Amino acid sequence: MGGKYFEELEVGQILKHQTARTVHDYDNILFSTLTMNPQPLHLDAEYASKTEFGRPLVNSLFTLGLAVGLSVQDTTLGTTVGNLGFQNVEFPRPVFGGDTIYTETEVISKRESKSRPMQGIVVFEHRALNQRGEIVMRCQRVALMLKRPIDK
Amino acid sequence: MGGKYFEELEVGQILKHQTARTVHDYDNILFSTLTMNPQPLHLDAEYASKTEFGRPLVNSLFTLGLAVGLSVQDTTLGTTVGNLGFQNVEFPRPVFGGDTIYTETEVISKRESKSRPMQGIVVFEHRALNQRGEIVMRCQRVALMLKRPIDK
After folding, report:
1. Is B1 buried (19+), middle (13-18) or exposed (0-12) by CB count in 10 A?
2. What region holds the MaoC-like domain (chains A, B) (predicted)?
3. DSSP H or E run through B46
4. CA-to-CA distance for A80 and A59, rounded, in angstroms?
């Protein structure tokens, strides 16, 4: 069990996640169609060739989803109740098929839950970087985390 | 072309999107594995049966992605440069396999881009509702929108 309980997370802690993932054009097609997104910027290479990017732009929510997914092993795996939300989700640079995404997470804040004494609220900042070390996504995720069970 | 140019969007406008989508357990598996998310809450029905939800919780980023996807036909289809980001993404209620997701969008604000005279920044609030009319996701999306071409 790789996730961390509320007590194990410290503000300022930075976790560099081991697994990276190369994004393929087909990820973009699969993600966009699965989420019913008809945007030609993602699906239509001819259309995209006439935009400022010159080729299909990877769906930004795929980048967000992948960055969160790659962080879970080290953060919330089996130690969360669920995601309460996200704040300040930014995409400073585009992602294209062939780019490789690396991720890191910083613990921004934590506090006890008022209504749930066995749980606490942790804000993670996730950052996704491409193969040139440029930040392509930054967000803050608000997670309702479990405290360590008494018998552990 | 169903998307709206910057000039066609008015603050306060509410768009109720026609296409709805029933979410299946397999969407959750496919989305979570595609984004490399190993969270047992999403993938492991035995684990999930012992949580407060009693069954797998649909990945909240699938709900976000689907709500945005279902809105694109009426908002940004072919009329956006790209997503700048998201703010205040909330998941007030859980989504489970079998739930049907309906969406609506409100135009929250718009302003001209300072650096790009042919473009403007529009903030959309997307809301996803389940079959009981309960809000399961609310977010604000910041989109860089094209102005109407001079020949249209």
Report:
1. exposed
2. 11-115
3. helix B45-49
4. 27
Kindly report the nearest CA distance between residue B10 and chain A, in angstroms.
21
Tell me what ipTM this predicted complex has.
Answer: 0.95
Burial class (CB in 10 A: 0-12, 13-18, 19+), A93: middle
**Residues 9-28 of chain B whose Cβ lies under 8 A from any Cβ of chain A:** 19, 21, 27
φ, ψ of residue A65 in degrees (nearest 5): -60, -40
CA distance A19 to chain B (A): 9
Q: Residue B64 belongs to what H/E stretch?
A: helix B60-72
List domains and CATH numbers for chain A. Answer: 6-146 (3.10.129.10)
d(CA A51, CA B130): 36
- Tens of pLDDT, residue by residue over B28-76, are 999 999 999 999 999 999 999 999 999 999 999 999 999 999 999 999 9
Instruction: Please state, as a whole number, how many other Cβ atoms lie within 10 Å of the Cβ of residue B67.
Output: 28
Cβ contact B111:A111 at 8 Å: no
B15 forms bridges with which residues in the sheet?
A: B105
Q: Whole-angstrom Cα distance, residue B16 to residue B70?
A: 10
Fill in the amino acid letter for A88: N
